Amino acid sequence: MRQVALTVNGMRHELELEPRELLVYVLRDRLKLTGTNVGCDTSSCGACTVLVDGESVKSCTVLGVQADGAEITTIEGLAANGSLHPVQQAFHDHHALQCGYCTPGMVMAAVSLIEHGEATSEAAIREGLEGNLCRCTGYHNIVAAVQDAAGAMGRAR
Amino acid sequence: MEVFRPSTLDEALRLRAEHPQARPIQGGTDVMVELTFGDARPEALLDLSELAELRGFAEEDGLLRLGAGLTYTEAMQTPLASRLPALAEASRTVGSPQIRNRGTIGGNLGTASPAGDALPPLLAERAEVELASARGTRTMPLAEFLLGVKRTALAPGELVTAVRVRPCEGPQTFAKVGQRNAMVIAICSLAVVVDAEAGEVRAAFGSSAVTARCVVVPLAEAAELPERVVEAASPIDDVRATAAYRRHALRVLAARTLERCLRT
Ligand SMILES: Cc1cc2nc3c(=O)[nH]c(=O)nc-3n(C[C@H](O)[C@H](O)[C@H](O)COP(=O)(O)OP(=O)(O)OC[C@H]3O[C@@H](n4cnc5c(N)ncnc54)[C@H](O)[C@@H]3O)c2cc1C
Ligand code: FES
Ligand code: FES
Q1: SS3 letters for B117-180?
Q2: Which residues of A touch B2 (CB under 8 A)?
Q3: Angle between the A140-156 and A86-93 helix axes, to the nearest 10 degrees?
Q4: C-alpha–C-alpha distance, residues B93 and B154, integer Å
Q5: ipTM exceeds 0.90, yes or no
Q6: Local confidence band at B138 (pLDDT 50, 70, 90 cut-offs)
Q7: Residue B108 alpha carbon, nearest atom of ligand 1
Q8: Chain B: nearest CA to A129, how far in angstroms?
Q9: Which alpha helices (DSSP H) does chain B contain, by range?
Q10: A130–B73 CB contact, under 8 Å
């Protein structure tokens, strides 16, 4: 067992972890933050995307012990004071989800893309989300939502 | 499974010598997939991601030293992207943003897949690999480091610490053919570097031989490059494409990238 300190959505947690525990299961099983989904476990689908020190990563590809000292943001950390994050709001407005399984990862990848100033066009958004698979929507409304949110977040700045 | 997390290179090299069975891991985008698939069951991992010595890049007298921990996202950004444009272009084609944020050049060398996308641009730039162990440091040309499919010249106790490149002045570019644009292993790939000073054109290709390979042609005979690339390739039929398709695609990629370079 290994002593690890993680800051998740602004809250510090001290945990005893097995070295082989994946970050995604630390979030889901230990911290009960079950918004982050697991779709494949092999780094393909992007459902498990979270932000580690501001960068989007697939949390099924990171060991919990490797995140020692890191700041992590999950889907649960986006809404502030009861109002949705602009990307969440845009997904709602544009019907950018059907079953919703891909949505937490998709939203986190989109937040990272917008925050890094890379959601500059439809093509750039499609390219930036290529690590996130959706089996329902056909992506059209997701891209529209991200474009809308990028505009809203740009105006808010 | 034990996970060692050294915080200095010296400590890492000591652990490497003491625990030869511990698998090095940097971004983990290859290692973790092997672990979750059950393809690999190492007794221990040697996590190199905390080592400041392996991060980022430095330049001294025109010699660039890319740390083994340099990520694709970093290789895509200025100023590195303007010094090594073909490597930046290749980096843009790797996986997705999440993979590029964690995946490293050192990990691509460690995996030594014939399809490794960082390899052709580095080979075409005549890159050298810096290897360190508790015994000391040595360098060797990347072309000699890559021995075969997932086989390298890494000796027991050694780690890749950096890649050294002296970027040449002429134009360079990279192109890749895959089954679709995103998240696929290359069917074939090719980087071209026009080295005006040396009076030659170099092309390195991936996914068409047991390792990525480099071909050199005098600048005056640049038109022969596509044919020379095809001669140097020994592609196989696999699930992604046939050998014949790969030869054809290599010829097209070589002609296209060459034209792009010589036109500018
Ligand atoms: C979804 C997905 C898409 C991908 N797409 C691409 C792609 O388009 N193109 C491509 O080339 N690759 C691709 N890859 C593979 C992978 O991302 C790259 O090979 C990457 O460069 C590996 O770097 P890493 O730091 O994650 O390596 P790790 O997984 O940490 O290590 C890889 C190997 O290198 C060894 N190693 C690591 N560091 C060192 C060191 N310093 N010294 C000695 N040995 C070391 C490890 O033991 C291991 O064998 C993809 C992977 C995934 C999961
Ligand atoms: S669960 Fe992590 S990428 Fe699919
Ligand atoms: S909404 Fe169902 S997978 Fe995307």
Answers
A1: CCHHHHHHCCCEEEEEECCEEEEEEHHHHEEECCEECCCCCCEEEEEEECCCCCCEEEEEECCC
A2: 19
A3: 140
A4: 27
A5: yes
A6: very high
A7: 21
A8: 7
A9: 9-18, 31-37, 72-75, 80-83, 85-92, 97-102, 105-111, 119-124, 142-145, 225-232, 243-263
A10: no
- Distance from the Cα of A48 to chain B's closest Cα (Å) equals 10
pTM for the predicted model, two decimal places: 0.96
Q: Does B264 score more than 80 pLDDT?
A: no
Which domains, from first to last, does chain B contain? 2-46+54-165 (3.30.465.10), 172-263 (3.30.390.50)
| Total H helices, total E strands in chain A | 5, 5
What pLDDT, on a 0 to 100 scale, did the predictor assign at position B185? Answer: 86
Structural domains in chain A, CATH included, are 2-77 (3.10.20.30), 86-156 (1.10.150.120)
The CA distance from A108 to A88, in Å, is 10
**Helix B243-263 × helix B225-232 angle, to 10°:** 150
